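Posted in: Structural Biology > Protein-Ligand Complexes

Title: Requesting predicted complex, uridine-5'-diphosphate in pocket

I'd be grateful if someone could produce the 3D structure tokens for the following input. Sequence and ligand are given below.
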Amino acid sequence: MSKQVLVTGGTGYIGSHTVVELQAAGFRVVIADNLSNSNIEVLDAIQKISGVRPDFENVDLADKLATDSFFDKYPDIDAIIHFAAFKAVGESVQKPLEYYHNNLNSLLNLLGNMLRYNIRNMVFSSSCTVYGQPDKLPVTEQTPRKPAESPYGNTKAICEDILRDFCHANAGFNCIALRYFNPIGAHPSALIGELPLGVPNNLVPFITQTAAGIRNELSIFGDDYATPDGTAIRDYINVVDLSGAHVVAINRLIQDKQKANYEFFNVGTGTGLSVMQLVKSFIAVTGVQLPYKIAPRRAGDIEKIWADTSFANEELGWKASRATEETLLSAWNWEKSVRGIN
Ligand code: UDP
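-- Reply #1 --
Done. Output follows.
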């Protein structure tokens, strides 16, 4: 019998792509998601891509009783990938209690059930936000974490600490935190992708919506940073590459290949691109019009960050492989398919 992986937040952006990669690698998948930021139709899309419909349960994982009942129904899970979380930085500043409640309780409820059902493996969605603005670039896993700039960022740091302490106290239980840089793009089938509700916060969905005519103009937040062209620099990673890192991490856990029972890895490309470089690349590769203007810096933004990925490359044997151009084209193809543009 193939191994069963619980993917929380599996109908979301990174979750849905990871479900597809897990299925391709031979895992059975059950998704737990309360659809607070995703659509049930994603299950149809996953089935179209892989030929297999994952099991699905509508569960609020911050609700202990509901979470316990979920595990009672699925007692044979081998590993968990925990994506389900609120993720809007600005909103977290306005609604800190909702963020702490949702993001911390869901992790606690999952860990409690790992003990209850002897589920020994978890991969956790963390973020390069835990590094703040690093003093030295690129960032390695040894780069010190900085105090969080937002409640959202703080939930990622606290969850990492919870995992570390959980693993320390429970020998034989294994966790890997993956610190994502900036995931972008969509599945090459254009059947799944990022679908933000309302006005997008993130750069690439704002670009593709502007290109599709839904937004009038892209604002580039700041052109006076200490970078070659003055715009901020990030490490943009293809979402399918990122999903592949989860499959590798799950195999590492299941095959007991860890060096310590709590590990964390940077998951990026190792290359920094400026906002302006990304915008120009999008225009060049798609040939579409993209009206943009320079706007003031966005509060809370850091100037530049990109990953040193050598630890993930060497230890996990994983490397991002897709070119930015291909990735931007996949984001545009997804936007066109959602909007019915030819
Ligand atoms: N950005 C921008 N205009 C937008 C959205 C984002 O110029 O409409 C910039 C943002 O200031 C940052 C980069 O794009 O420098 C990536 O932002 P995003 O919100 O996608 O990710 P973050 O790195 O902030 O998590």
